[in-house]
Every structure is written in structure tokens, then in C-alpha cells.
Amino acid sequence: MASILNQIGTISALNVRSIPQRLAMSIATVVAVALCITVLLFFLALANGLAATVKGSGSADVAIALREGSNAELNSVITREQVNILASGPGVTVKDGAAAASAELLVIVDGIKRSTQTKANISFRGIGPQGLAIRPAARITQGRMFAPGTNEIVVGSALLREFAGFEFEQTIRLRGGEWKVVGVFESPGAVFESELWADVGVLQSLFDRPNIFQTLRVKLNSEAEVAAYADWAKADARLKQLQVLSERDYYAQQASQSTGAFMIIAWGLGITMAIGALSGALNAMYSSVAARAAEIATLRIIGFSGVAAFVGTLVESLMLAAIGAIIGLALAFLFFNGRSTSTLGSGFTQLVFKFELSPSVIVSAIVLALVIGFVGGVFPGVRAARQRPLLELAG
Amino acid sequence: MNDLVLMRKNLFRRPVRTILLIVSILIAFLIFSATMSFSKSITTFNSKPNRMVTVSKINFTESLPIAHYDKIARTEGVSVATHLNWFGGYYQDPVKGFMPVFAVDPETYYEVYKEDLPLAENVKQAFFTERTAMLAAEPVAAKWGWKVGQKVPMNSNIFSQADGSHVWDFTLVGTFPTPPGSSQTGSVLVGYKYFNETISFGRDHIGWISFLTKSAALNDQVVNAIDQRFANSADETSTQDEAAFNKAFAAQLGNIGLVVTLVVGAAFAAILLIVGTTMVLAVRERTQEVGVMKTLGFTSGRVLRMVLGESLLLTLIGAGLGTGLAALALSLASGGSSGGPPIYFDLSVIKWCVLIALAFGLVTGLLPAISAYRLKIIDALARR
Question: What is the C-alpha separation between A352 and A345, in angstroms, rounded?
Fold first, then answer.
């Protein structure tokens, strides 16, 4: 047993150290694996970052009510009467005599996407007086909060990064009215940071949607009370046609809808490119075995086993793939990990997020690279193991 | 034995290696033709240079008062105008059954989109006159098993009827085919009149206006006339040609062009290296043979042409297979389904594939061809 391991160690070392002799084809394999891994990581990091931002937006102790089947805030409709009933529901936090509830209206306005200089859908959210309080992660970092009842806007810092048209202290004309950007807010890792916020009443009147809201968010005393609150809402005939769920569940649903297509693209392209890289790896390894035919034959005659010749070839191939994976990861960290970008989310508005390489994304990429290395080494390895020593030396 | 036969024999003398190279070239061209077709499909639909859209200046999701329609239809230079409302339609399931349903003014809609609506006379008349009439793209009707004449309960994820219901019963009066690039791909059309009379809010508002100008040369003049007409009103407009509007919409997804370029670039770079290094090796293995050929009187030029020809042949086989596979895969993917974007194989990709394949073949063959060209007989025969 020990001798077989020794043999494997010796041949593997011999193979790996002789890679420079077959440099061109080895480099081609490494580069092909690296590029394949980079492409896979690009789309996986995109899907992962997008999902993380959407999922990170919901609080577990906030319940959101929207019209059943509306599937997105934009489509939903809730009346003032329903809002009043919902705000007085069981378990709603009351502070200084006021329920921690925010009835909201979302409209879409055009912004200019900096990267393409084209128009893009921006969320313009009207929030209630408690809107900031039920989003504890959000805080004003520049200027001040809008004054209730005025045409003032605060802008999310992520929005500012990716879109033009809503800079601090700028005046914006919409529907014949003038709006002023009086503050910038942050809400790290949440969709809200890609939004504009203003007073919901002012938004309703200026956008001609009197007494119509889309969602109601209420903060409950604890996470555990969301289910009871939803059941209570379901039992009330005046609230029929509404769906009540925790904000966290709502955003989890939205996340899976947003990222499905990117996951398909990631694996579709990743696996296709992996097949190309695998062809390269197989070619390189067959050539390696052919180039070392005399060497392998010699080793066999002096007593090395076929298994050792097989494993030696496999190790060489895995080594090339591993180097490719490391380069691919390095390229990903260098060029796009942590970069900010934006796309049209499931809510039909632009969502700003960051490319994010999570441990599971990195593991997926390494596994794919090792599969290429393994398959690329197995068949040429079998050929190496089956070589008949005398024949090869005679040739 | 002519040179072509020699090239072919040379190419396939190590069949495993050649097949592997063909597979890798195939992959590069598959990725190229599929991603190019994809980006083309989602950025360009059948659009007419004189077909324009007017949307709210705030954003195209913001509605406009119906009075805008009459004013635009009567604008000088406009030949026919129609209006559309986004219905927010879904059948059975809000996510899986989601589909683009538009409430339109039937007669004028037909006039504006005639080319993509080949309707039999009786279907056309039914669509124009029946209150609950609905038309659907053939693949949509097939997917959900709708038969002409049947009632289809369609949900709206936005609108409600007076009784609070979200479901409208429409009658499917006909279907229309949607060949690649059709502007009506995946669409379901219902009548605005019925829609407007039954919705509980948003009445007398329209989503956007689509119209034809008398000639594309009048486009700029019409744009100015319309947008100035509504300037400084509560409902300002933004008018542009259909192609520009579609392009801007696709750009909302991201910088698709840049991503496609990078992905395609990565695929070609990887495969170019693989094929290039293997071709160098393949010709080096034949050094002695090249020496023999030159001894027999093959000129250096002829040897060079044969090596180049071999790499060209290899690339063209791989490119042909890859492009063919992309066409096959896309036709399978787009047939039947209606949920996703209308993706189809774009024929103009073929031209690019041929050009790239020629360049790719020449580049990968160049190095070994030159070394074979320069090879002296004495060195070739001495090399082991």
C-alpha cells in the first residue's frame, strides 16, 4: 500500500514538474478553465447579489398587506378604509398613541441610467409619517428628512450611484409641480436604497390617485404575532381580496422571481463553456500522455504500476484545472466582486445591488473546475495505464 | 490525390483529437450565435420606421387621459393612431400564468399592426364588434389549451370590477401566428370599451398611444408637435419611434451589449488558445512528413496553403455545427412557450459566423503554416 502511494507521489511530481515542457497546451487548458469559471462566477455573483439585496429588505416583524394576486406592490390597490382597519389590528405596535403603520403608494418615474445613458424605471415611494420608523435600518446621511405635506424628496444613496437626475438639492419637475431633493438616505443592502421617498399624501394628490394606496406596512410587537395578525385580517370580510404576510416572506418571494433567469443563464453558459474547456483539457492530457510515452514505459519496466501512471495523469489534469479555478476566482475578485450594478427587478423598477461572491458560489465554481479536471484526466489516464511498455519503447 | 483529400486525411489522422477540437470550436460558435440571437431578439422587434409611441413623460407606466388620444390622432402627419392599456393579465396562476394582455381599440389597433395580424375576415369582424372578444397569439392559446369560441376567465393583477372581482370573462374569437420577430409575440388582445366600462378605477385613461406617421420623414415634426402640445400640462408626453423605445426598454435590464461582448470574447479567447496550440503540435508531429513532401517537390507555398486549409476546414466544420446547434436549440426553446421573452435564431448571425470562422481558421493555422513554410528539408528529415 505504502509503495503504491509512493509510486503515485513520484509519478505525480514527475508529471507536474514536466508541465513546463508542454507549456503552450497546458496554458491553453488553464486559460480555458479560468475563463469558464469567470463567466460562471459573473452570473452567479449577479444572481446572488440581487437575491441578497431583495431578501435583505424585509423585516420579520413587519407585516405587509397588498391586493391578492397583485404579485408586486406596483399593481396592488388598497383603500383608505382598509388601511384604517388594518392599522388597528391585533399586535400592532403603538407608540405615543400612534400605530406603527405606513400606508404607501409607489409610482414609477424616469431616471437616467448612468452606464447606458438611457431612461430607466425608478421607484418613487410615498410613505406615511411612520415610514422611517418601521424601517430601522434606514437613516438620513445627508441633508434632512422631507417635511410632511411638502413637495420634498429624499433619495436613496444606491440610486444616486447608478442613476442621474435626482442629485441632492436638485429641483425636479413632475406633473407640473416642482419637487426638491432635500436629503439622502442609506438602507444598506435593501431595495429601498434604490428608491425616492416623499410624503404619501402629496404624492397621491400630485399623481391624481386620491385615497388610493398600494401597500400597508405595520410593525408588530413581535415576529411571532405576524401569523395571528394575518389570520385576523383573513377573517374580516372588509379585508377580503387582500393578502397579508410578513415583509420578509414577501421579499423572499420577490427574490426568487428576480433571480431565476440569471441562474439559468449562469449554469447554461457555465456548463457550455465547461464542455469547451474539457475538450481542451482532454486534448492537452492525451498529448501529455503521448509525449511521455517513453517515460511511462520506462517507469513501468522498472516496476511502477499502471495505477500510479493513471493517478499521475489525473493529478496533472486536476492541477491544471485547479490553477484555472484560482485564476478565475482572482479575476472575479479583481474585476466584479463588490461592484455596484442595477437591473429591472420583479417589481418592474430598477434595483441597485452589488455582485457578491458567497461561499456557496465559490464552491460551485471550484466543483465545476474539478469536474473538468477529473473528466479531462480520467480517459487519458486510462490510456497511460494501459500502455504496453515494450511496444512503446520499441517505437 | 488532390490537396483537399490530403488536408482531410491530415485533419482526421488523429480522430479523437480532431473531434475534441471540433467540439470546442462548436461551443464557441454555439455561445456566439445563441447570445447574439438573444440580444437581437430582445432589442429588436418588427418595427416600422414610421410607427411611433407616445407615453407619459414621467414614465411609460403612468397613464394618460383618453382626451390625449383624439388630439394625437388629429395631429398633422399622423395617419392612424391607436391606444393600449396594460391589463396586468394572468390565467389561473399569478406567476406562472402571467401574460402580456392589452386592452386596445380593435379597429385602429388592427390598422397600426396589420402586418403582424393576419386575420380571416370573420375573425376580424368578431374582434371589432363583439364586446368580450379576445385574440391570442397561437402559442399562447396552444399552451393553455384555449379553443376558438370558448370563454376564457382572465385575471387582472391590477384592476377590479365594480363587485370587487378581478376576473373578466373574455371570448376567444381567433388566434394569430407569431413568426420570429413578430411585434405581437406572446400577446393577448382584448377590447378597450368592455375594459373601460367594467373597471372600478382608472376609467377613461389609456396606457400609451401607438401611431403611424404618413412618412418616416415627418417623424421629427410629429414628435415636436405632440410633445409641445402637452408641454407644461399635468400630463406631459414623450414621443419616439418604436425601435428607439424598445431599445431603451431592453437597456433597463442592463448593458446587454457589453455583457454579450465579454462572454463571447471569453469563449473565443479560450477556444482560440486551445485550437491554436493543438494545431502547432499537430504540424510539429508531422515535421518529417513535411520534409518528405518538400523532397517530393511540394513547394513551400503549397505546404503553407495545405496547413492553412486544414485549420480552415476544421474551423468551418466546428462553426457550422455550433451555429446549427444554436438554431436548433433556439427553435426548440421558443416553440410552444409564451412566458419568456420572444427569443429566436437571428439569420444575420450566420454572416458573422462565416466571417469569424474564416478569421479564426487563419489565425490558428498561421503559426504552424509559417513554420512548415520555412522548414528546410535537411532540418525536417534530421528531426526526430
Answer: 9
